[in-house]
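Residues pack. Consider this:
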Amino acid sequence: MARTLWDALGEVKDRRGRKGRQYPLQAVLGIALAAMLAGANDLIAIFRWGRRLKPETLRLFGIEGGRAPCHATYHYFFQSLDADALSQALGRFAAGEAKGGHIAIDGKTLKGSRRLDATPLHVLSAFATGLGAVIGELTVAPAQNEITAAIALLKSLPLDGAIITGDAIFTQREICRHIRDANGHYLFTVKDNQPALKAGIAEAFGDLSPLGREPVLRRPAA
């Protein structure tokens, strides 16, 4: 039987205490995802969408008693949710049995994620171009950098036969070694922040490298 999104949601570990488990994790996540797909973009909208569900529909989400979660339930639920674990579960579901292909890794600071004096969230994502979907995502802690986070993210990805691309910040020996050890390939940019490596590449390719040739100035056509 094919693995479903419901199965993927069931793989996320529930970090709530006993008193906070009135509704199953799969049920709350399932309703929230369905509500967002229907256009809900905040907790109030998710709450209102869920409260419009009929008892027979709620039973399909594993909720007995005919009453969907309240707004406060969603608030405390998402506070305790392991976002990285959810991203990994959704990534595995999106990837399915697919292997290889092009995976682009990139880091972005999330707009509007700053709260009071807290540092805005910075997320490292892996986008599979063939699937058109993010198959891995990891929150970069304030004391962490994208290089160490990239290694952790790569360990959760199907690298066999894949081609990994990224910015110059990922042009690091440890990252490249991990990709090759997993039977993957990489294509990273080399810039002036690594002058020795850049010069070595120019020397290795000789005349084939644009770095080793003087630019040819052409006279514009009359």
